[in-house]
Design goal:
Helix 1 crosses helix 2, helix 2 (about 30-45) packs across helix 3 and helix 7 (about 185-200) packs across helix 9 (about 225-230). It is globular and about 70 Å long. The chain is built from 16 helices and 26 strands. Strand 20 and strand 21 form a beta hairpin. The strands form six sheets. The chain has a nine-stranded mixed beta sheet with strand order 2-1-10-9-11-12-13-14-15, sandwiched between helices. Strands 16, 17, 19, 20 and 21 form a five-stranded antiparallel beta sheet that branches. Strands 4-3-5-6 form a four-stranded parallel beta sheet, sandwiched between helices. The model has no long low-confidence stretch (mean pLDDT about 90). The protein is α/β, with parallel strands linked by helices and about 525 residues long. Among the domains are: about 5-150 and about 160-185 and about 235-300, Rossmann fold (3-Layer(aba) Sandwich), CATH 3.40.50.12780; about 410-510, ANL, C-terminal domain (GMP Synthetase, Chain A, domain 3, 2-Layer Sandwich).
Length: about 525
């Protein structure tokens, strides 16, 4: 079954069954199919959207994101979900890079959209729902929901093809420039199949989805798989620990996915021990090296915690555990997904023996097509269909895989990717800073946080707080360094490259570098 036909199929098979529960309201499969068809017509007739055009979404989780994704599949357009946690300059950079034809704005992000509009004059804005706003500048925007409701002439649209790009997810690049990961309809379909098999997912399942849908995990780990089998999704706008625990008790979901930071927030909440978790079959977690407490906390409540490994480029599901093998795969990320192949190679790309550490390579129909308009980065990341993950790991004798380190300097904080180059570009651009480096520091709550080590000029008036202030309104708050250390010099090797491993060791042990 092709991706665009999933909803149409279940709109006939189980028309009145809830597809999405959101804000206390149920949207049946028949209603979802109608909303998708109407949105596809609005995009085509009202805004002139055609095959290959990019449509961006800026807002919290909403059923409208799902409608937009499937409407794009029907029209051949491409959805670009935006991380609302980013600063305005970062969002403008992404929108300009994608050359977005239309920006759909959730009611929670109107103020940000107004700021964006002042810098991108050629990007039309449209309200998703058009709820009352204090900001009168937004009053003249068209309202997507109203346009859908008013539509009378419904003509079938079937211009989709499995090989068509349908989704671009921007991920921070090692150079500091965000890269657009282009995913096809086919990739999303195969990823959904991987997840369905991983979770043993069926139409009787009830999914609780609280991951942000501007991330691959929010879309691909359980949302699209659930819709591909006709299951029901309870969708939350944002993650609120108390509300999630209440939903687990009252909504009786069978499956959910959470990053370690969210699990920490739930297990330390006052309502944790009185929450009824008996209906949960499993909780899926990943996006980083998973701390033991994330597994143990659920095990103590009789719930299986499954680990999954993947990247935006692999639709988030590449290696995973299942309920059946979670005990036998303990201490690992599990085995390759059904439609994935894994290799471990050395620096020359040669496959290495079991037990030896090397870079993880991934191949399968769920791997991304390319980086948006970046052939050099695409060529570097893909070799004969194999994606170079830049993660270091090894295969155990039993066929399971352990992810042990990162080849790149990526910092993962609360499930969010932070690349030091983004911060270093700002630091090194200041006239009173000679050089700077950003590294990860372990953090009990967030997993990791960025810290900056800075060498200033002799006459500099910058102190630690002054350095921190350089990031205000330039990068998302979660990317700001939690600590700043002013140092006399940074260690470099014979080639002049900063030796960050020495910085990490110094930061922990204060050994001389």
């Amino acid at each position: 079954m092709k991706q665009d036909t999933w909803i149409d199929h279940f709109s006939k098979l189980t028309a009145n069954k809830p597809a999405i529960i959101f804000g206390g309201r149920e949207q049946s499969y028949a209603q979802l199919a109608d909303g998708i068809a109407r949105l596809a017509m609005v995009l085509k007739q009202q805004f002139g959207i055609k095959k290959g055009d990019r449509i961006a979404w800026l807002g919290n989780n909403s059923p409208k994101i799902i409608e937009a994704l499937f409407a794009c599949a029907k029209t051949g357009a491409i959805l670009v979900p935006l991380n609302w946690r980013l600063a305005v300059p970062e969002l403008v950079q992404i929108l300009a890079d994608a050359e977005v034809s239309l920006l759909i704005v959730g009611d929670d992000q109107v103020e940000t959209a107004v700021a964006i509009a002042t810098q991108l004059k050629n990007c039309p804005l449209v309200h998703a729902y058009g709820l009352p706003q204090a900001d009168t500048q937004s009053g003249s925007w068209p309202v997507l929901q109203t346009l859908q409701d008013q539509l009378k002439d419904m003509l079938p649209i079937h211009t989709d093809r499995p090989e068509n790009p349908v989704l671009i997810l921007y991920t921070s690049g090692t150079s500091g420039k965000p890269k657009g990961v282009v995913l096809t309809q086919d990739a999303l379909m195969w990823s959904a199949r991987n997840s369905v098999l991983m979770h043993g997912m069926t139409a009787s399942d009830h999914i609780l989805m609280v991951l942000p849908m501007f991330h691959a995990g929010g879309i691909n780990i359980q949302t699209l798989p659930a819709l591909s089998v006709g299951a029901t999704i309870s969708l939350h706008e944002v993650f609120e620990p108390g509300r999630v625990l209440a939903q687990i008790t009252s909504g009786r979901p069978t499956l959910t996915a959470l990053v370690p930071t969210q699990i920490s927030a739930l297990t330390t909440h006052p309502d944790w021990n009185k929450t009824d978790v008996n209906q949960l079959r499993s909780v899926t977690t990943g996006s980083t090296l998973v701390p033991d407490f994330c597994v143990e906390a659920w095990a103590q409540r009789g719930v299986t915690a499954l680990q999954v490994y993947g990247t935006t480029e692999t639709c988030a599901v590449a290696i995973h555990q299942t309920c059946e093998n979670v005990e036998s795969t303990s201490g690992s990320m599990g085995r390759p997904a059904a439609h994935c192949k894994i290799r471990v190679v050395d620096d020359d790309g040669v496959e290495i023996p079991v037990g030896e550490h090397g870079e993880i390579l991934i191949k399968g129909p769920g791997v991304f097509k390319e980086y948006w308009r970046d052939p050099a980065a695409t060529e570097q990341a893909l070799t004969d269909g194999w994606f170079h993950s830049s993660d270091i790991g090894f295969q155990r004798a039993d066929g399971t895989y352990v992810i042990s380190d990162r080849k790149a300097d990526l910092i993962i904080s609360g499930g969010e990717n932070i690349y030091p180059a983004e911060l270093e570009a700002i630091l090194n651009g200041h006239p009173e800073i000679i050089e700077a480096a950003v590294i990860a520091q372990a953090d009990e709550r967030w997993g990791e946080v960025p810290v900056a080590l800075v060498v200033t000029t002799a006459d500099s008036g910058l102190d630690k707080e002054g350095v921190k202030a350089l990031f205000n309104d330039r990068l998302a708050r979660f990317k700001h360094p939690r600590q700043v250390q002013l140092v006399a010099q940074l260690p470099r090797n014979a080639m002049g490259k900063i030796e960050k491993f020495k910085l990490r060791r110094w930061f922990v042990t204060e050994q001389e570098f």
